[in-house]
Amino acid sequence: MDLHPDIEKVLISEEEIKEITGRLGAAISRDYADKNPLVVAVLRGAFVFTADLMRSITVPCAVDFMAVSSYGTGVKSSGVVRIVKDLDTPIEGRHVIIAEDILDSGLTLSYLMNLLSNRGCASIAIAAFAVKDVPGHVPAVRPNYVGTHVPNEFIVGYGLDYAERYRNLPYVGVLKPEVYSN
């Protein structure tokens, strides 16, 4: 595997990603066997994870996409959420699974859960590829499906970005501090 020069180290390899998405897909398939869930990808970061997750789910399901803005130009969530692209699929009476790339503060997901719940969905769950472990901090929401836990470092790859770069890396890696501290 060729390591990108801006990456300090690989946290989650391609093989580990396949294991994680396979495990999550199997759990969702078991839990939603007769429910035809709607998987909602939170764009942009979750699109790669959602594609792999969908291929791992063996029961009938559908997919739709939402784009929200909560980061602006910084590296920490502002807590203010703006819907940039809303769902095209009506969700009233549907079982919804929000696919999220990384759960950090959980503020954006908390907002989305409330928003979608108010639209009358039958149930709502969260499938998070990664949960960032921040000492002394508990996220605003608890995901139903957790792929893995990651340390409180700046990670990129597998859909995760910094300044719209690195999403195409096939692994998750730690970005070198000198890249984002300038």
Key phrases:
182 residues, alpha/beta, six-stranded mixed sheet, three-stranded antiparallel sheet, 9 strands, 24% helix, globular
Task: Tell me what the structure shows.
This protein is of the alpha/beta class and 182 residues long. It is built from 4 helices and 9 strands. The strands form 2 sheets. It has a 6-stranded mixed β-sheet, sandwiched between helices. Strands 1-9-8 form a 3-stranded antiparallel β-sheet. α3 (107-117) links the parallel β5 (95-103) and β6 (123-133). The chain is globular. The chain starts with 6 loop residues before the first strand and ends with a helix. The relative contact order is 0.21.
Task: Tell me the layout of helices and strands.
Blueprint: E1 7-12, H1 14-31, E2 38-43, H2 47-56, E3 62-69, E4 82-85, E5 95-103, H3 107-117, E6 123-133, E7 145-151, E8 155-156, E9 172-175, H4 177-180
Parallel strand pairs: 2-3, 2-5, 5-6, 6-7
Antiparallel strand pairs: 1-9, 3-4, 8-9
Helix pairs in contact: 1-2
The strand order across the widest sheet is: 4-3-2-5-6-7
Shape: globular
Order of helices and strands: EHEHEEEHEEEEH
Rg from Cα: 16 Å
Number of helices: 4
> What is the typical, i.e. mean, pLDDT?
92
- Give a short account of the largest sheet: 6 strands, mixed
User: What structural category characterises the helix and strand content?
Assistant: alpha/beta
Strand content: 25-35%
Distance between the termini: 28 Å
Approximate helicity band: 10-25%
Number of strands: 9
Low-confidence stretches: none
